Amino acid sequence: MLTALLSILSLSVRAEPQKPNIVLLFSDDAGYSDFSFQKAVNNNNFLTPNIDNLASQGVRFSQAYVTAAVCGPSRAGLITGKYQQKFGFEENNVPGYMSKSGLDYDDMGLPLNQITLADRLKALGYRTAIFGKWHLGDAERYHPLKRGFDEFIGFRTGSRSYFEYDDKKLPQVPQNEKLEYGFGDYREPKQYMTDFLAEEANQFIERNKDTPFFAFVSFNAVHTPMEAHPDDLAKIKGLSGKRKELAAMTIALDRAVGKILKKLTQLGLDENTIVVYTNDNGGPSDTNASVNFPLSGTKANHLEGGIRVPFIIRWPTKIKGDSSYSHPISTLDLLPTFVTAAGGKISTEDDLDGVNLLPYLNNQTTEVPHPTLFWKKEVRAAVRDGDWKLLRYPDRPAELYNIKLDESELNNLAHKYPEKVRELYKKIFEWELTLERPLWQLKREYEGKAMERMDAYRPAAINVM
């Protein structure tokens, strides 16, 4: 009798679906075409075999968007599944660039009333960790360990050196740039930062191989400062200056991704682990020599090069690999996709703007995930509605493009279709009525730079070799 009961219980345990592990690989300021899987021109020496391998095993998205063209707001949208303007996180939280009329720097963080992706997964029984860049508030109350993460090894601000700060330099380094283990334990890495973050992520995966885990690997690569490892720099031929540094830093990024993917395979976890690779915004071509070809624009503006990013998702047991998806998606979609895959429920009361991507990837629906997407930063705004995209500026007429026919945004159609311009203006206005006022604002001189057209980085003018 006891044997039969144990047998039934055993069958019951085996029948229960196993929650997938989740690994989010998130790079910083990478150019749209600076990966060989993107198959773009002008990316000589940007060979990324490990990310390419992930792309060949998963789904490649040709129209994946972030929610903002700069780091902090983009991350706020991703981690909440909501347009970050709904809760006032519209600007980058960068000390020195803030208006005196705004909040003090310590008050600039992800509002505490917002539920994060880590909060939701932790409630579903996941062990959660973030490695690397945080950039959602430096003050103690915004700390990752208070926002749903069980573990944190990284830095609170938006960038730092890739190398160890020595004892002479360390006293001059702002506290938020120092490498932090958990809360308040500051120790400098002995490895190149990109490799270090991969090693720490792998140790977390090893420790939690028998329980569902969420690892958010938030690389600072390839954000400035331009600091490549000498061994990687020696591998780059035919390039010079920032472009050479960037190519070498990209080698390290790809190597780090490869280490994490290899660890999942070694532990037998790869089949039931959702792995996503994407980037936080378009490449800042003026500061790190990244290339967003064939897209116009760059980080900090709403042209495609500022908001469209490489995006891959792999989940072998649930999603068909070596495939592509061409409809617009958003990093807003990561939260509802991950939570649903983990067995959680998303309700209308959650007020999310992202959608669960799984039905779209598994052909369970013929609808598109996002008929309309929005972007806004102060008075600048953009809307993607079907194939049409309108860009609203404070200092010149709006621009209208058909993205399906003109993804490089070279042919402004605003004069030809004034009714479409008015229609899309109205959509922006209606969306703006649902938003909060920005909690802080940039100084005007900094915002002015961000509003530049960046015509030098249009496809016809690219000269990076």
- What is the third-level CATH name, the topology of the largest domain? Alkaline Phosphatase, subunit A
Report the biggest beta sheet as strand number plus sense, adding barrel if it closes: 10 strands, mixed
| Termini separation | 76 Å
Give the mean pLDDT. 91
Strand order of the largest sheet: 7-6-5-4-8-1-9-11-2-12
Please indicate the count of domains. Answer: 2
Number of helices: 13
What is the CATH level 1 assignment of the largest domain? Alpha Beta
Q: Please identify which CATH superfamily of the largest domain we are dealing with.
A: Alkaline Phosphatase, subunit A
Rg over C-alpha atoms, rounded to the nearest angstrom = 22 Å
Q: Point out poorly predicted stretches.
A: 446-465
Domain Sulfatase N-terminal: 20-343
Family: Belongs to the sulfatase family.
Pfam families: Sulfatase
Keywords: Calcium, Hydrolase, Metal-binding
Q: Could you provide a short overview of the structure?
A:
It is globular and about 60 Å long. It has 465 residues and is α/β, with parallel strands linked by helices. The C terminus is likely disordered.
Chain-wise SSE layout:
Blueprint: H1 2-15, E1 21-27, H2 49-57, E2 59-61, E3 64-65, H3 71-80, H4 117-123, E4 127-133, E5 151-155, E6 180-181, E7 185-186, H5 193-207, E8 213-218, H6 230-233, H7 241-266, E9 273-279, H8 285-288, H9 304-307, E10 308-309, E11 311-314, E12 323-325, E13 329-330, H10 334-341, H11 358-361, E14 372-377, E15 380-385, E16 388-392, E17 399-402, H12 418-432, H13 444-450
Parallel strand pairs: 1-8, 1-9, 2-12, 3-13, 4-5, 4-8
Antiparallel strand pairs: 2-11, 3-10, 5-6, 6-7, 9-11, 14-15, 15-16, 16-17
Helix pairs in contact: 2-7, 5-7
